Amino acid sequence: MGLLDGKVAIVTGAGHGIGRGHAMELAKHGARVVVNDLGGSVSGEGVGRDADLTVDIIAARGGEAVANYENVADFEGAGRMVAQAVDTWGRLDILVNNAGIVRDATIVKMSESDFDAVINVHLKGTWAPCKHAATHWTERFKATGEPVGGRIINTTSGAGLTGNFGQSNYAPAKAAIASLTQTLSLELFRMGVTVNCVGPAAATRITGTMPGAPAVIEADDVPDGEWNRMDPAVSSPLVAWLASAEADHVTGQVIRAVAENIIWMKPWADGPTLNNGGKRWDAAKLGMQLATDVFGTRAPGLRY
Ligand SMILES: NC(=O)c1ccc[n+]([C@@H]2O[C@H](COP(=O)([O-])OP(=O)(O)OC[C@H]3O[C@@H](n4cnc5c(N)ncnc54)[C@H](O)[C@@H]3O)[C@@H](O)[C@H]2O)c1
Q: How many C-beta atoms surround the C-beta of residue 114 within 10 A?
């Protein structure tokens, strides 16, 4: 028995890189996979049939996959992608939102269109497939009254979680995906749908745009069973597990898979707190109060 036998999955941006690794891994565990990819450049220009490459690799390894060439940020296109899964195999169980582009520049040099394009592919390109998948699951839930066991696995990045120089488009888009994950986990849990987020790291076309980056590799370049810390499929076993029935209690989480480590990210949490005792804050005194009781940059003995 495979971990994902009988499941139907979509992996977006699966023509290359990390998405190809996820699609191969889900298929290896028995899922039938819609391999989505627009087939453009790393900065989102042009279109192509790159999804076919991954479909062929999966087929050669005895798995089942079909290609989809939609732009995930196009609302109607995202709808057609979900419909393709349902039309082909009767259902959708797993949605892995992975598609992405980069257009790095410091804010002064970044054009408005570079900002819009990156936010659009990552954030709307995650929200739109989620919306169509959630609609499909709601229909199933209403028809049967049974939890549908759906899975959404989104993709964030260290840049989104801690910020990154030169990525004032990409970093907030990836932070927003973590936030979207938390919100959808609340909205969809009632129907038995979990929503989680992974933060991968790999030598792909995206990292290949950075100065001094390691050479780009594809998941199928790494022989089966061989460990390569920059393998685009390093995070794929985590994705396959989150997609499985075993992970039905895990939702709203952000988990990074970076080389040898799987790291559970703690969410934003309250830190040291200043209380005004029911009186309006005084800006002239606030700096001293914050320094003493919040930032700890002023000795507490100086409080009085
Ligand atoms: N490489 C890393 O170290 C790293 C780190 C953190 C997060 N990520 C994230 O991983 C994901 C995959 O990136 P990658 O590094 O494998 O890069 P990649 O360029 O190899 O793969 C991204 C794929 O998405 C496809 N794509 C782009 N726009 C699309 C659209 N609108 N619709 C459908 N497909 C589209 C591209 O054609 C490409 O095949 C991205 O979301 C990226 O932000 C990557």
A: 20
Is the CB of residue 15 less than 8 Å from the CB of residue 72?
no
> CA 138, CA 128: separation in Å to the nearest integer?
15
Closest to 176 (Cα-Cα) out of 136, 228, 124, 212: 124
User: Per-residue pLDDT for 304 more than 70?
Assistant: no
Cα 118 to Cα 174: distance, rounded to the nearest angstrom: 10
What is the phi/psi pair of residue 248, to 5°?
-70, -15
* Cβ of 136 less than 6 Å from ligand 1: no
Copy the structure tokens of residue 181.
Answer: 């994950």
Point out the ligand 1 atom lying closest to the alpha carbon of residue 232.
16
Q: CB of 46 within 8 A of CB of 40? A: yes
Which residues are 197's β-sheet partners? 154, 254
- Residue 302 — very low, low, confident or very high, per pLDDT cuts 50/70/90? confident
Residue 72 Cβ < 6 Å to ligand 1: yes
Residues of the chain with CATH 3.40.50.720: 8-265
Q: Any alpha helices (H) in the chain, and if so which ranges?
A: 17-28, 51-60, 75-89, 112-119, 125-144, 158-162, 170-188, 236-243, 283-293
Q: Of 164, 44, 146, 37, nearest to 91 (Cα)? A: 146
Compute the average pLDDT of residues 22-48: 98
- For domain 8-265, the CATH class is alpha beta
**Cα(290) to centroid of ligand 1, in Å?**
41
Q: Is 202 in the pocket of ligand 1 (CB under 6 A)?
A: yes
Please enumerate in sequence order all residues whose Cβ is within 8 A of that of 148, keeping only pairs 6 or more positions apart, or say none.
137, 140, 141, 191, 192, 193
